[in-house]
């Protein structure tokens, strides 16, 4: 029985690796994380993830000692195929680790799923070493309301997926990070040339798999492998087109905004940056808006 379970686990890994090789979007996400993360050999690293185990597995190839926190039970079950020691489920916003435990913390598409993101970022600051770094990837919030219309049409809106928010703007990143981190580098990647067709392909793959295709269930069996076969055949068919779209997106990246954000931050001592308030209760910005230039009175 144990030998059969091991064979199934190996088959799950084999298929997930093959599916990853047919996903331009997931490969782009891994590339951005690795670029921002840098060297991890001989370092202690914490990963907080929504469950994409192949990315977790490939980050470990850079060396170092890794600890993984999953944002849900389903993500934890899926990650058990890919990482050792087993992942733990993040409880609320608290990280169960002593102060100054890690050289790096990587948050992969997970911050949108955490209710109090500010409190969680404060925890990340606590568990990082004084010279530690924090790397975050997240969906870029759209200016017209925070959601992607195509996701809504495909039934994959952020609310339907159980997220706490639809994404982040560069300003949102700064607001949640400003009290404990310097943000020298924020990049956007994956333009609409890739995201639009990629979302359609993802929706079709998830429908075939009966759930997120990149989160294998604990009781994976031959039926799952049958679905993976169909998803892989479809991915092989559309991959050349997606690759071509990605090259167009790269050529137009200075014109088209990226649909995802990645930030590399450097830890510093946590100190709340409060907005100055005037004696009458107004902020400086409110006072400036209600005061004519060259006068001292709000009329």
Structure description:
The chain is of the alpha/beta class. The protein has one domain (2-268): Rossmann fold (3-Layer(aba) Sandwich), CATH 3.40.50. The chain is 42% helix and 17% strand. It has helices at 2-20, 24-37, 53-59, 73-79, 117-127, 149-153, 170-177, 192-209, 222-251, 284-289, and strands spanning 44-49, 65-70, 88-89, 102-108, 128-139, 181-189, 260-267. The protein has a seven-stranded mixed beta sheet with strand order 3-2-1-4-5-7-6, sandwiched between helices. Helix 5 (117-127) links the parallel strand 4 (102-108) and strand 5. The termini are far apart.
Short description:
This protein is of the alpha/beta class and 299 residues long. The protein is built from 10 helices and 7 strands.
CATH topology: Rossmann fold
- What strand line-up does the widest sheet have? 3-2-1-4-5-7-6
**Poorly predicted parts:** 292-299
Question: How much strand?
Answer: 15-25%
CATH homologous superfamily descriptor = Vaccinia Virus protein VP39
For the record, give the distance between the C-alpha atoms at the N and C termini, rounded to a whole number: 82 Å
Sheet/helix structural class = alpha/beta
Q: Overall pLDDT, averaged? A: 86
Topology at a glance:
Layout: H1 2-20, H2 24-37, E1 44-49, H3 53-59, E2 65-70, H4 73-79, E3 88-89, E4 102-108, H5 117-127, E5 128-139, H6 149-153, H7 170-177, E6 181-189, H8 192-209, H9 222-251, E7 260-267, H10 284-289
Parallel strand pairs: 1-2, 1-4, 2-3, 4-5
Antiparallel strand pairs: 5-7, 6-7
């Amino acid at each position: 029985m144990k030998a059969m379970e091991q064979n199934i686990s190996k088959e799950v890994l084999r298929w997930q690796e093959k599916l990853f090789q047919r996903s331009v979007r997931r490969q782009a996400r891994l590339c951005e994380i690795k670029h921002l993360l840098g060297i991890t050999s001989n370092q202690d690293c914490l990963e907080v993830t929504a469950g994409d185990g192949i990315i977790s597995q490939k980050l470990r190839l850079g060396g170092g000692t890794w600890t993984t926190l999953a944002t849900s039970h389903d993500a934890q079950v899926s990650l058990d195929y890919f990482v050792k020691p087993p992942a733990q489920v993040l409880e609320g916003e608290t990280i169960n680790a002593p102060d100054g435990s890690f050289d790096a913390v990587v948050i992969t598409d997970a911050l949108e799923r955490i209710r109090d993101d500010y409190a969680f970022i404060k925890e990340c600051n606590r568990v990082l070493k004084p010279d530690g770094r924090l790397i975050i990837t997240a969906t870029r919030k759209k200016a017209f309301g925070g959601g992607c219309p195509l996701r809504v049409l495909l039934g994959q809106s952020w609310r339907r997926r159980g997220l706490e928010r639809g994404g982040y703007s560069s300003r949102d990143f700064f607001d949640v990070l400003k009290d404990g981190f310097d943000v020298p580098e924020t990049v956007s990647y994956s333009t609409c040339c890739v995201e639009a067709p990629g979302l359609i392909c993802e929706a079709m793959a998830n429908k075939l798999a009966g759930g997120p295709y990149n989160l294998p269930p604990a009781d994976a069996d031959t039926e799952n492998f049958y679905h993976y076969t169909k998803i892989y055949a479809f991915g092989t068919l559309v991959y050349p087109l997606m690759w071509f779209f990605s090259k167009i997106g790269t050529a137009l990246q200075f014109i088209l905004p990226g649909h995802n954000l990645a930030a590399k931050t450097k830890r510093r001592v946590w100190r709340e940056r409060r907005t100055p308030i005037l004696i009458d209760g107004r902020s400086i910005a409110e006072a400036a808006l209600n005061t004519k230039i060259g006068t001292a009175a709000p009329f």
